[in-house]
């Protein structure tokens, strides 16, 4: 069943990780549910956004954002390195900060996707409302030409917890 933030549940399987002893999951046993990743993508306060400079060098910076409609949405300065990198190459990686939990202090979600600048007014209003609720910051007061909004559409995501060989999960989205 799809989660309430996506229309289609991504396909789960094991990532290819030679040398790590990752156990095949042909039966689906031990795979993390997509809802596990959505919870972490939704609850995090800070996210690491990794992009590539035009010369190929990596760039990673923290951002604030929201998980909405199965996408990660954030804003950044139009002249920031992040925005310049995404204009040249829209592929990026988003990873929420670690959410401490009683089940496992060793958790990670890594989302690979394509960032697109959006000017959709309806989406912006929904993003602004979710952003205000999460950060108590009115992003609607910002000039979108100076602080564009980007939507990261997932292509593949990975989830890891303690017990890596039996738990490591990859989710593939329809576009991948």
What does this structure look like?
- With 176 residues, the chain is an alpha+beta fold.
- The chain has one domain (11-172): Electron Transport, Fmn-binding Protein, Chain A (Pnp Oxidase, Chain A), CATH 2.30.110.
- Helices cover 21% and strands 32% of the residues.
- It contains 4 helices and 9 strands.
- It has helices at residues 34-43, 81-88, 121-135, 164-167, and strands at 11-13, 47-52, 58-63, 65-68, 71-75, 91-96, 108-118, 149-160, 169-172.
- A hairpin with a 2-residue loop joins strand 4 (65-68) and strand 5.
- The relative contact order is 0.22.
Which features would summarize this protein structure in a list?
single chain; 4 helices; 176 residues; alpha+beta; Pnp Oxidase, Chain A; 9 strands
Largest sheet: 9 strands, antiparallel
State the CATH architecture.
Roll
CATH superfamily: Electron Transport, Fmn-binding Protein, Chain A
> Treating each run of at least 4 consecutive H or I residues as one helix, how many helices?
4
Q: What is the β-strand count?
A: 9
List segments where confidence is low: pLDDT < 50 over at least 5 consecutive residues: 1-6
